[in-house]
Amino acid sequence: MATHKRDYYEILGVQKGASKDDIKKAFHKLAHKYHPDKAEGNADKFKELSEAYSILSDDKKRAEYDSYGRVFSEGGGAGAGFNGAGFDFSQFQDAFSQGGFDFSDVFSDFFTGQAGTRQRRGRDISIDLEISFKESVFGTKRTVLLAKTAQCETCKGSGAAPGSAMETCKHCNGAGKVHETSNSFFGTITMLQTCRFCRGTGSVPKERCITCRGEGLYKKQTEIEIAVPSGIEGGEMIRLSGAGEAAQDAPSGDLYVKVHVTPDARFKKDGVNLVTELSIKLSDALLGAEYKIQTLDGEEPLTIPPGVTHGEMLRVKGRGVPAGRSKRGDLYVRIKIILPQKLSRSARALIEKLKDEGI
Q1: Do residues 224 and 243 make contact, with C-beta atoms less than 8 angstroms apart?
Q2: 277 pairs with which residues across the strands?
Q3: What are the tens digits of pLDDT across the range 162-191?
Q4: Of residues 135 and 200, more confidently modeled
Q5: What is the rounded CA–CA span in Å between residue 231 and residue 254?
């Protein structure tokens, strides 16, 4: 048994005292980045990360590694026989399974499960959208400009120049797959990979599209219309299926829009109803009056009944949040009676007279 010279903690970018949760998060982040199916993937780096995680995520193996700088080979664990030629990668996967490791958790950001299968898809995009309070009540439409990977409009994603004939791919001889051999701490590993030149189709265009240089995809500015529904709350997400990054021969990702609502000092939402405040004079509270109030639909008259009390709510029907095709909540007006800070002699005399009358 040879002593490992690799620093597993350094490979995952964590401290020696890191928790299992921190180790898991670090591995997931790096595994997403270096997985061979990613554009910037690195098979050797991914295997190195997997080895480090298999050791540090297992309490027994981690304790052995911390104490002796190596892991003993009992049980065919991931620490055994890394330097032996012809290492069977399936054994390494079995070791993960026995330890409760779930590969689907690592790859969930670029695979989606459909009827028991896994399918590549484009990357999701997340953006923020700020709207006014009124727009959150009635709904609105916004157009945003995103720089994202999209299907080439010239070649319709084929990568071929218009009218170009197709020919057999010379790199895979039309098979669409190639065997790639690499040497690593696992030994010599041969893996069957999709041909990156023909992307598994077995054929390539004789003349590449000049717009996307044969990739079928390119970065472009894309206008996307976002329909914000009425009654949306700040912090809610809108999902636009297929509006994310495009992928070659696979569905596009999704666009997630996080909505931020700018508060309005005049109104508060209470379900499908709105609440506002109106300050009135004491004399108007006693005798009644007509006031103009501001609603989200514009200025409207409001009758103040005689004897209204401080804090009392007056209802304006149908001026709340839309709650259906033809239904809306109501606007409730909370009355605030303004008491005078100073009284003139005549006003004081009148108040004294009211007091004498028991009012």
Answers
A1: yes
A2: 334
A3: 888 888 988 898 888 888 776 655 566 777
A4: 135
A5: 23
% of the chain surpassing 70 pLDDT: 82
Separation of alpha carbons 324 and 215, rounded Å: 47
3-class SS shares of the chain: helix, strand, coil, % to 5: 25, 35, 45
Please work out, in degrees rounded to the nearest 5, the angle formed at the alpha carbon of residue 164 by the alpha carbons of 161 and 166. 115
Pair 124, 254: CB distance under 8 Å: yes
User: What is the rounded CA–CA span in Å between residue 304 and residue 242?
Assistant: 53
**Residues ≥6 apart with Cβ < 8 Å to 358:** none
12 has a pLDDT exceeding 80? yes
How far apart are alpha carbons 2 and 144 in whole angstroms? 58
- pLDDT, the chain, mean: 81
The total of other beta-carbon atoms located within 10 Å of residue 191's CB is 12
User: Parallel, antiparallel, or unpaired for β 273-281 and 289-295?
Assistant: unpaired
pLDDT exceeds 80 at position 8: yes
Evaluated on CA atoms 77, 81, 83, 85, the torsion sign reads negative
* Reported confidence tier of residue 124, pLDDT bands at 50, 70, 90: very high
Q: Considering only CA atoms, which of 240, 231, 296 is closest in space to residue 261?
A: 231
Which residue is associated with the tokens 């595994």? 31
- Quick one: residue 318, left, alpha or beta (phi over 0 = left, psi -120 to 50 = alpha)? left
Provide the residue type at 312 as one letter. Answer: E
Per-residue pLDDT reduced to its tens digit, 79-89: 433 333 333 44
User: Are 112 and 118 spatial neighbours (Cβ–Cβ below 8 Å)?
Assistant: yes
Q: What distance in Å separates the CA atoms of residue 102 and residue 84, rounded to the nearest whole number?
A: 26
Average pLDDT value for residue range 239-246: 92
Question: How many Å is the Cα radius of gyration of the chain?
Answer: 34
Cα 119 from chain centre: 19
Q: Residue 190 and residue 86: Cα distance in Å, rounded?
A: 9
pLDDT tens readout for residues 193-212? 888 788 788 888 888 888 88
Place of tokens 């914000």: 228
